Amino acid sequence: MKIAILGYGKMGKIIEKIATDRKHEIVLKIDVTNQDELTTENLQKADVAIEFSTPGTVLDHIDACFKAKVPVIVGTTGWYGHLQRLKDECEQNGTTMLYASNFSVGVNIFFHINKMLAKLMNNYPYYDVQVEEIHHTQKLDSPSGTAITIAEGIVDELDNKKEWVNILSTDGTEGLADTIKADQLLIESFRIENVPGTHTVVYDSEVDSIEFKHTAHNRNGFALGAVLAAEWVQGKKGFYSAKDMFNFSL
Ligand SMILES: NC(=O)C1=CN([C@@H]2O[C@H](COP(=O)(O)OP(=O)(O)OC[C@H]3O[C@@H](n4cnc5c(N)ncnc54)[C@H](OP(=O)(O)O)[C@@H]3O)[C@@H](O)[C@H]2O)C=CC1
Ligand SMILES: O=C(O)C1=N[C@H](C(=O)O)C[C@H](O)C1
Q1: Is the predicted ipTM greater than 0.90, yes or no?
Q2: What stretches of 26-183 show up as alpha helix (H) in DSSP?
Q3: What is the CATH superfamily name and number for domain 105-215?
Protein backbone atom coordinates (compact mmCIF):
# COMPACT_ATOMS: atom_id res chain seq x y z
CA MET A 1 0.00 0.00 0.00
CA LYS A 2 1.20 3.52 -0.77
CA ILE A 3 0.69 5.90 2.17
CA ALA A 4 0.69 9.71 2.54
CA ILE A 5 1.56 10.91 6.06
CA LEU A 6 -0.07 14.26 6.92
CA GLY A 7 1.61 15.65 10.04
CA TYR A 8 5.13 14.36 10.63
CA GLY A 9 5.57 14.81 14.37
CA LYS A 10 5.79 12.28 17.20
CA MET A 11 3.00 10.11 15.73
CA GLY A 12 3.84 10.62 12.03
CA LYS A 13 7.38 9.34 12.57
CA ILE A 14 6.29 6.17 14.43
CA ILE A 15 3.60 5.53 11.79
CA GLU A 16 6.28 5.74 9.09
CA LYS A 17 8.40 3.11 10.91
CA ILE A 18 5.50 0.71 11.56
CA ALA A 19 4.10 1.11 8.03
CA THR A 20 7.45 0.42 6.37
CA ASP A 21 8.02 -2.59 8.70
CA ARG A 22 4.68 -3.88 7.36
CA LYS A 23 6.01 -3.45 3.78
CA HIS A 24 4.01 -0.32 2.94
CA GLU A 25 5.60 2.57 1.05
CA ILE A 26 5.49 6.20 2.21
CA VAL A 27 4.97 8.33 -0.91
CA LEU A 28 4.28 11.73 0.70
CA LYS A 29 5.11 13.36 4.06
CA ILE A 30 3.58 16.74 4.90
CA ASP A 31 4.54 18.98 7.81
CA VAL A 32 4.73 22.75 8.39
CA THR A 33 7.74 23.09 6.09
CA ASN A 34 6.20 21.70 2.87
CA GLN A 35 2.45 22.52 2.88
CA ASP A 36 2.75 23.48 -0.82
CA GLU A 37 3.30 19.78 -1.64
CA LEU A 38 -0.22 18.91 -0.39
CA THR A 39 -1.67 18.88 -3.93
CA THR A 40 -4.31 16.63 -5.48
CA GLU A 41 -1.67 15.25 -7.82
CA ASN A 42 0.68 14.30 -4.97
CA LEU A 43 -2.12 12.87 -2.79
CA GLN A 44 -3.34 10.69 -5.65
CA LYS A 45 0.01 8.87 -5.63
CA ALA A 46 -1.19 7.30 -2.33
CA ASP A 47 -3.80 4.59 -1.67
CA VAL A 48 -4.54 6.17 1.71
CA ALA A 49 -3.54 9.15 3.85
CA ILE A 50 -2.88 9.04 7.62
CA GLU A 51 -3.48 12.35 9.38
CA PHE A 52 -1.96 13.18 12.81
CA SER A 53 -1.24 16.92 12.89
CA THR A 54 -2.88 19.72 14.88
CA PRO A 55 -6.47 20.87 15.56
CA GLY A 56 -5.78 23.94 13.38
CA THR A 57 -4.62 22.02 10.30
CA VAL A 58 -6.62 18.80 10.31
CA LEU A 59 -9.67 20.13 8.44
CA ASP A 60 -7.59 21.47 5.53
CA HIS A 61 -5.87 18.09 5.30
CA ILE A 62 -9.18 16.17 5.30
CA ASP A 63 -10.66 18.49 2.66
CA ALA A 64 -7.57 17.99 0.47
CA CYS A 65 -8.00 14.19 0.75
CA PHE A 66 -11.72 14.43 -0.07
CA LYS A 67 -10.91 16.58 -3.12
CA ALA A 68 -8.35 14.02 -4.29
CA LYS A 69 -10.76 11.14 -3.44
CA VAL A 70 -8.08 9.50 -1.29
CA PRO A 71 -9.31 7.66 1.86
CA VAL A 72 -8.10 9.37 5.03
CA ILE A 73 -7.43 7.95 8.51
CA VAL A 74 -7.68 10.75 11.08
CA GLY A 75 -6.14 10.61 14.57
CA THR A 76 -5.85 14.32 15.35
CA THR A 77 -7.97 15.34 18.34
CA GLY A 78 -9.34 18.66 19.60
CA TRP A 79 -11.39 19.79 16.56
CA TYR A 80 -14.99 18.95 17.42
CA GLY A 81 -18.24 20.17 15.82
CA HIS A 82 -17.25 19.30 12.23
CA LEU A 83 -17.85 15.55 12.22
CA GLN A 84 -21.43 15.68 10.93
CA ARG A 85 -20.42 17.75 7.85
CA LEU A 86 -17.63 15.26 7.10
CA LYS A 87 -19.97 12.27 7.54
CA ASP A 88 -22.47 13.91 5.16
CA GLU A 89 -19.75 14.61 2.60
CA CYS A 90 -18.56 10.99 2.73
CA GLU A 91 -22.13 9.79 2.11
CA GLN A 92 -22.90 12.28 -0.65
CA ASN A 93 -19.58 12.24 -2.52
CA GLY A 94 -18.43 8.65 -2.02
CA THR A 95 -15.31 9.73 -0.13
CA THR A 96 -13.80 7.70 2.72
CA MET A 97 -12.72 8.66 6.22
CA LEU A 98 -12.07 6.78 9.46
CA TYR A 99 -11.74 8.83 12.66
CA ALA A 100 -10.75 7.55 16.09
CA SER A 101 -9.90 9.50 19.22
CA ASN A 102 -7.62 6.59 20.06
CA PHE A 103 -6.39 3.83 17.72
CA SER A 104 -4.87 1.45 20.28
CA VAL A 105 -6.47 -1.97 20.70
CA GLY A 106 -6.24 -1.62 24.49
CA VAL A 107 -8.15 1.66 24.62
CA ASN A 108 -10.82 0.36 22.25
CA ILE A 109 -11.33 -2.64 24.56
CA PHE A 110 -11.47 -0.10 27.41
CA PHE A 111 -14.17 1.93 25.56
CA HIS A 112 -16.27 -1.22 25.16
CA ILE A 113 -16.01 -2.31 28.82
CA ASN A 114 -16.46 1.29 30.04
CA LYS A 115 -19.97 1.35 28.54
CA MET A 116 -20.85 -2.05 30.00
CA LEU A 117 -19.61 -0.95 33.43
CA ALA A 118 -21.56 2.36 33.27
CA LYS A 119 -24.75 0.45 32.44
CA LEU A 120 -24.18 -1.89 35.40
CA MET A 121 -23.52 1.04 37.77
CA ASN A 122 -27.11 2.30 37.25
CA ASN A 123 -27.97 -0.32 39.91
CA TYR A 124 -25.58 1.32 42.41
CA PRO A 125 -26.37 5.06 42.44
CA TYR A 126 -24.41 5.67 45.66
CA TYR A 127 -21.21 5.57 43.56
CA ASP A 128 -20.25 8.84 41.89
CA VAL A 129 -18.09 8.66 38.78
CA GLN A 130 -15.22 10.79 37.48
CA VAL A 131 -12.78 10.52 34.54
CA GLU A 132 -9.10 11.43 34.84
CA GLU A 133 -6.60 11.79 32.01
CA ILE A 134 -2.85 12.47 32.10
CA HIS A 135 -0.81 13.49 29.04
CA HIS A 136 2.56 15.05 28.20
CA THR A 137 2.93 18.83 28.44
CA GLN A 138 3.07 19.43 24.64
CA LYS A 139 -0.54 18.33 24.22
CA LEU A 140 -2.56 21.17 22.65
CA ASP A 141 -6.09 20.03 23.55
CA SER A 142 -7.88 19.21 26.77
CA PRO A 143 -9.67 17.11 27.66
CA SER A 144 -8.07 14.42 25.51
CA GLY A 145 -10.18 12.99 22.69
CA THR A 146 -9.98 9.62 24.43
CA ALA A 147 -11.37 11.10 27.67
CA ILE A 148 -14.25 12.63 25.70
CA THR A 149 -15.08 9.24 24.13
CA ILE A 150 -14.97 7.63 27.59
CA ALA A 151 -17.18 10.38 29.04
CA GLU A 152 -19.66 10.13 26.15
CA GLY A 153 -19.85 6.38 26.76
CA ILE A 154 -20.70 6.99 30.43
CA VAL A 155 -23.25 9.76 29.68
CA ASP A 156 -24.92 7.44 27.12
CA GLU A 157 -25.29 4.59 29.62
CA LEU A 158 -25.46 6.07 33.14
CA ASP A 159 -28.87 7.59 33.83
CA ASN A 160 -27.73 10.16 36.42
CA LYS A 161 -25.05 11.86 34.25
CA LYS A 162 -26.30 14.29 31.57
CA GLU A 163 -23.12 15.99 30.26
CA TRP A 164 -19.39 16.14 30.85
CA VAL A 165 -17.36 19.13 32.04
CA ASN A 166 -13.60 19.54 32.10
CA ILE A 167 -11.05 20.94 34.54
CA LEU A 168 -7.42 21.25 33.50
CA SER A 169 -5.65 20.89 36.82
CA THR A 170 -2.94 23.47 37.27
CA ASP A 171 -2.02 25.47 40.34
CA GLY A 172 -5.00 27.56 41.37
CA THR A 173 -7.83 25.21 40.39
CA GLU A 174 -8.09 23.80 43.92
CA GLY A 175 -11.74 23.57 44.93
CA LEU A 176 -13.11 23.96 41.37
CA ALA A 177 -14.24 20.32 41.41
CA ASP A 178 -16.69 21.31 44.17
CA THR A 179 -18.63 23.48 41.65
CA ILE A 180 -19.56 20.44 39.53
CA LYS A 181 -23.29 19.63 39.61
CA ALA A 182 -24.48 16.11 40.51
CA ASP A 183 -25.64 15.37 36.94
CA GLN A 184 -22.36 16.55 35.40
CA LEU A 185 -19.48 14.15 34.79
CA LEU A 186 -16.11 15.67 35.64
CA ILE A 187 -13.15 14.99 33.37
CA GLU A 188 -10.02 16.10 35.21
CA SER A 189 -6.97 16.67 32.97
CA PHE A 190 -3.37 16.65 34.14
CA ARG A 191 -0.28 17.55 32.08
CA ILE A 192 2.97 15.88 33.17
CA GLU A 193 6.25 15.58 31.20
CA ASN A 194 6.60 12.54 28.90
CA VAL A 195 3.31 10.76 29.72
CA PRO A 196 2.03 9.12 26.46
CA GLY A 197 -1.56 8.82 27.75
CA THR A 198 -3.24 7.50 30.91
CA HIS A 199 -7.01 7.34 31.39
CA THR A 200 -8.85 6.31 34.56
CA VAL A 201 -12.53 5.99 35.36
CA VAL A 202 -13.17 6.15 39.11
CA TYR A 203 -16.44 5.12 40.77
CA ASP A 204 -16.28 6.36 44.34
CA SER A 205 -18.57 5.71 47.31
CA GLU A 206 -18.26 6.33 51.04
CA VAL A 207 -16.98 2.81 51.59
CA ASP A 208 -14.76 2.07 48.59
CA SER A 209 -13.57 3.04 45.10
CA ILE A 210 -13.52 1.12 41.84
CA GLU A 211 -10.79 2.26 39.43
CA PHE A 212 -10.67 1.23 35.78
CA LYS A 213 -7.45 2.34 34.13
CA HIS A 214 -5.59 2.25 30.79
CA THR A 215 -1.92 3.22 30.66
CA ALA A 216 -0.12 3.61 27.33
CA HIS A 217 3.56 2.70 27.84
CA ASN A 218 4.53 4.37 24.55
CA ARG A 219 2.89 5.55 21.26
CA ASN A 220 3.40 2.31 19.29
CA GLY A 221 -0.12 1.02 19.97
CA PHE A 222 -1.72 4.20 18.59
CA ALA A 223 0.48 4.10 15.49
CA LEU A 224 -0.08 0.39 14.78
CA GLY A 225 -3.85 0.90 15.09
CA ALA A 226 -3.72 3.74 12.55
CA VAL A 227 -1.80 1.59 10.06
CA LEU A 228 -4.26 -1.30 10.62
CA ALA A 229 -7.09 1.17 9.93
CA ALA A 230 -5.40 2.23 6.68
CA GLU A 231 -5.26 -1.44 5.64
CA TRP A 232 -8.86 -2.10 6.78
CA VAL A 233 -10.36 0.86 4.91
CA GLN A 234 -9.06 -0.24 1.49
CA GLY A 235 -11.96 -0.74 -0.93
CA LYS A 236 -14.50 0.83 1.49
CA LYS A 237 -16.56 3.99 0.92
CA GLY A 238 -18.13 6.20 3.60
CA PHE A 239 -17.44 7.33 7.15
CA TYR A 240 -16.13 4.87 9.76
CA SER A 241 -14.91 4.83 13.35
CA ALA A 242 -12.51 2.51 15.19
CA LYS A 243 -15.61 0.73 16.54
CA ASP A 244 -16.44 -0.43 12.98
CA MET A 245 -12.90 -1.76 12.56
CA PHE A 246 -12.58 -3.58 15.91
CA ASN A 247 -16.20 -4.79 16.02
CA PHE A 248 -15.85 -6.34 19.50
CA SER A 249 -18.35 -8.93 20.69
CA LEU A 250 -18.35 -11.51 23.48
N1 LIG B 1 -6.11 9.04 17.77
C2 LIG B 1 -5.01 8.58 18.36
O3 LIG B 1 -4.84 7.37 18.58
C4 LIG B 1 -3.94 9.55 18.73
C5 LIG B 1 -4.11 10.86 18.47
N6 LIG B 1 -3.11 11.75 18.70
C7 LIG B 1 -3.35 13.11 18.24
O8 LIG B 1 -2.60 13.29 17.06
C9 LIG B 1 -2.20 14.65 16.94
C10 LIG B 1 -0.70 14.72 16.70
O11 LIG B 1 -0.03 14.19 17.81
P12 LIG B 1 1.57 14.18 17.87
O13 LIG B 1 2.14 13.54 16.67
O14 LIG B 1 1.90 13.67 19.21
O15 LIG B 1 1.87 15.76 17.83
P16 LIG B 1 3.18 16.50 17.32
O17 LIG B 1 3.08 17.92 17.80
O18 LIG B 1 4.39 15.72 17.66
O19 LIG B 1 3.01 16.46 15.74
C20 LIG B 1 2.14 17.29 15.04
C21 LIG B 1 2.78 17.52 13.74
O22 LIG B 1 1.94 18.31 12.92
C23 LIG B 1 2.78 19.24 12.27
N24 LIG B 1 2.09 20.38 11.76
C25 LIG B 1 1.80 21.56 12.36
N26 LIG B 1 1.22 22.37 11.50
C27 LIG B 1 1.14 21.70 10.34
C28 LIG B 1 0.69 22.02 9.06
N29 LIG B 1 0.18 23.23 8.77
N30 LIG B 1 0.75 21.06 8.11
C31 LIG B 1 1.27 19.88 8.36
N32 LIG B 1 1.74 19.52 9.54
C33 LIG B 1 1.68 20.43 10.51
C34 LIG B 1 3.79 19.64 13.33
O35 LIG B 1 4.92 20.24 12.73
P36 LIG B 1 5.98 21.00 13.67
O37 LIG B 1 6.54 19.98 14.59
O38 LIG B 1 6.98 21.51 12.71
O39 LIG B 1 5.21 22.07 14.37
C40 LIG B 1 4.10 18.30 13.91
O41 LIG B 1 5.09 17.65 13.15
C42 LIG B 1 -2.70 15.33 18.21
O43 LIG B 1 -3.95 15.93 17.94
C44 LIG B 1 -2.90 14.18 19.18
O45 LIG B 1 -3.86 14.46 20.15
C46 LIG B 1 -1.92 11.38 19.24
C47 LIG B 1 -1.71 10.07 19.57
C48 LIG B 1 -2.70 9.04 19.35
O1 LIG C 1 -1.95 13.92 22.26
C2 LIG C 1 -1.67 12.74 22.54
O3 LIG C 1 -0.51 12.38 22.80
C4 LIG C 1 -2.75 11.76 22.53
N5 LIG C 1 -3.91 12.12 22.07
C6 LIG C 1 -5.06 11.32 21.93
C7 LIG C 1 -6.20 11.88 22.75
O8 LIG C 1 -6.36 13.12 22.79
O9 LIG C 1 -6.94 11.12 23.34
C10 LIG C 1 -4.80 9.86 22.13
C11 LIG C 1 -3.73 9.52 23.11
O12 LIG C 1 -4.25 9.57 24.40
C13 LIG C 1 -2.50 10.36 22.96
Answers
A1: yes
A2: 40-43, 58-68, 83-93, 105-121, 145-157
A3: Dihydrodipicolinate Reductase; domain 2 (3.30.360.10)
